[in-house]
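FAQ
Q: What does a multi-component entry look like?
A: The components come first, one per line:
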Amino acid sequence: MVQHDKLQQTLMHLFMILLVLCCILPFLLMVIASFTEEATLTRNGYSFFPEALSLETYRYIIRSAGTIFRGYLMTIIVTVIGTGCNLLLTVLFAYPLSRKDLPYRGILSFFLFFTMLFNGGLVPTYMMYANTFHIKNTVFALIIPSLMMNAFYVIMMRSFFSSSIPDSLIEAAKLDGASEMKILGRVILPLSKPMVVTLVLMVGLGYWNDWMNGLYYVTEQKLFTIQMILNNMINNIEFLTRNASMLGTAASNMKIPQVGIRMGIAVIAVLPILVIYPFLQKYFVKGIVIGGVKG
Amino acid sequence: MKRKIVTTLLCAAMTIGLLAGCGNSGDSGTADTEASAQEEEATDTKAADTGDMVTVSLYIPTLAPYTDEAIMEVQDAINAHLAENYGIQTKLVYIEIGNFDQSINLAMTTDELDVTCYFPENTPLATYVNNGQLLDITDYFENASDELKNTFTEAEIKASSVNGRMYGLVRKYQYGGYEVAVLNKDIVEEMGIDPAGITDMESLGEVLYQVHEAHPDIYALVPQSTNEMSWIQPWVKRVGLTSFAYTNDLDSTEIQSVFETDTFKEFCGYTHQWYQDGLIMQDAISNTQEGTSMVTAGAAFATLHNADVDPLEALYPNTVSTGVIIPPQSAPSDIGNLQYGISTNSAHPEESFTLLSALYTDAELHTLLSFGIEGKHYVIDEDGRADYPEGMTAETEPYGGFAATATYPNYLLNPVKASATVDDYKAAVEEWSTKVKMPAVFGFYFDTSEYGDFVTAYKNLEEKYYEPLRTGSVGLDDVLPDIKSELEAIGFYEVIEKMQGELDAYLAK
Amino acid sequence: MSNGKRRKAAPYKKNGFFGNLWGHRELYLMMLPGIIYLLINNYLPIGGLSLAFKKYDYSKGILGSEWNGMSNFKFLFSTKDAMMIIRNTLGYNFVFIVFGTIFAVAVAIILNEIRANVPKKIYQVFILIPYLVSMVVVSYIAFAFLSTDNGFINNSILHERINWYMTPKYWPFILTFVNLWKSFGYNSIIYYATVIGIDTSLYEAAVVDGTNRWQRIWNVTLPGLRPTIITMTLLAVGRVFYSDFGLFYQVPMNSGMLYDVTTTIDVYVYKGLIILNDVGRSAAAGFFQSVCGFILVLTANFVVTKVDKENALF
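Then the predicted structure of the entire assembly, as tokens:
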């Protein structure tokens, strides 16, 4: 029996190790490609053990550091503010929804759920934000549209509240004369750390990886985020694929960045996530376990 | 308690926002846009003397890097010039070329966009007109100065018109081009190849086989750019300014599917053979690099390349060009494949036209807009030619217009660049125009506004086969039966039959 | 908003609409920012759905454009590609839901069964990494693997030249793999969090009963996971007419030869939009996707209500 169990454990570890390799080797290849000499890349192809290494990619990136660091800064600002606002809205909406004694709960849930399926489409949304709210080329354009609240996260949060927070806790607090705000802040949230950390991760990621809002509402470079820079590069290449011929020899002036450089920029766009994420994950897992035991 | 205050404040702010939003959006549309736009200007303009002038926005795609600061400097200089001469102001909006189409389509839904560049080769002019995006400028043009009217040839006016009404002004440029191959200089010298002796696909092929033999580790031939094998083609595309009709060559007036023309078949015959023999980059179809950068870097030996007035050797170091492989020619859509027009939602059509017309006639304004500020973004050398300022290159110069002249309305107004081989662009372009052979079907226009579904279906079909065939990745004989049945399924042959009838009638006139 | 004043002035009533509002004013006040955001961001532009039935004219705006009945929807059904794009959209989504769920649940259970604590944490860190990057980056990575001349697979594993971007038959597998690779970590963690939350006394009872590992998984873990699986699947079902644009457009590098297996509704609409600038059509496609999703979710939710009322979405 014990023997059998050991074998099972080993097999499970093997399986997980395989999965983990599957997840990180592609990134490793990308990182190595960004350090590979361009000529070696075209001659020998992508390899984990390239013949010749080069720092040319990163030299290029440092040369154009102004744009990239500004993009970084913008991304960080947007991610921090956006995630904060989103979390506030989400928690404030989810908590009342989780209360079984709230009248019109069904209607409000439906009001929320409806937005997951129906939206007005790009053009009306654009007209509203650009014409009525005038958020074009402001930092709000990167924060407010679409990303500030997501019905899916509210539903996740609501489910967590209603399944992990005992009603008796709320009742007790109420008897003590605590206001709803106090109950939420003092009783519920401390117990909901795992869910909050999860949401910080998910929402922050949404902001970090977003380029859509930038594409629609931003034309000034000082507001470009790092994902926009990456996406612009791809769009420009695609534009050339489709119809560069119309620009004549002049299009030759438009230099497509070399493969290595593109890989390099992708690496620096991903890097902060890969660096910060494991730290968040630590709290994330701890939070889940605590929440799980206490809930 | 603190939390509560924050929440209350947030609520209040958002409620006010919502109420304001409701009030405005209730009667959105075009009625109240003018008022709000004027309000905006009143707050936007800084100087007192330009306070009551109308600001007209100008959208331009970026083909080279521009910095925000450089754009602001140039905008200020332009505004000083505009205020003095035209009594208007402008706001320059530069948008990444890859995002340009989508951005202007969105901007055209509101009144934020006045004058814009657009690409009829991407989205046909008739589509813009059909969607009500572009303002009919016929009357403005008729009342405009002779100087503006004389700028355009009849063909150019035709290229920016739909059903006899004008909707934009075409970019002044040389039209069409010829095709050469750009070769790596080191290998040419090492193997003693005579580039001038390469004058067609056959002779190019012979050299490619030799090079492949001697240097098997580099690509003998790569696409010109991404997956496009060559920009100038012997078959004539865009007959009737459509995306689907072709003729076999410049003289032919028989409309065909491109896959069934003899010239296409011949071209693909070569490339497919080369592809199978390993001469052409195997990744051609998913390539994302420029051919010339691979040739200059020595990763590839040759790439096909279009050439026109400007010499290629000046653009690409370490390369030599071959003889002419496809002679100078132009497709029906080459004239006016980049145009400037006015949005129908512009709040100031009159002022917009003033700006548009000044862009084509005012040399000082155009040079300022395209080259930037003299001494800062470009310099005039002792020969009177324009060049990069000391120590700057296309990559480091902050106002990219100097490198991206092609995106501006009328580069014939600019000083000649130091890199040019000609002394006078205007004369050179006129001379070029006499050399370029125009297709027999030039001037014919076919209205596709009723064929939206067909155009999309055809486009998908063509994208599926066209580049794979041209890069030789697929053999034409293998897929032609499929193509034919798919063409039949989308009703291609009926459409071109109808089109042929109209073309014959047009030619008879 | 006008009843805000009335609400305050209203006398205390035990029942009735205003009484209810007043009685729970604190809770409603909390929700207000969210409600306002949804109203602005999601409900205000919803009038734009009317574009699906209009021929949008830029100069006339949304209200002024003329109605044109159902003709914007024609291309979704009448063109020869209609069958193909709907088949692709539904087919891929179905495969993604089935494989995605099975795989993620399996990984979650394995994570739970592993006893060593440190490796367990490390595994959790790493399997989520693919989920964190954007599709743009994924498309770069995919190209590094699949490129014919330079790709890692052709060069270092197969040592032959398979032209991946030209051969449609591989792509259903590649796309499924990429989707699974990118999303399984996230789903696994969600399921894992649920598994941890299962009452440990249930396991202890099962151990006392002398059941083996498989029986425990079958009788305790899976039933405990059921609510989460149902919620996640319901949400996914609502989106079966949507597709991840990046996955189907950027990862295959928009290669023409692959259109038959990579064109989904979103990709088709995007391409149509580039050529035709037709706002009405993309609105029509969006409307179609929404309505289908809505019906599917309501139906699925109804079925769930019949079987298992507790876990229904609403």
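Q: Is there any commentary attached?
A: Sometimes. For this entry: Chain B touches chain A through 75 residues (CB under 8 Å).
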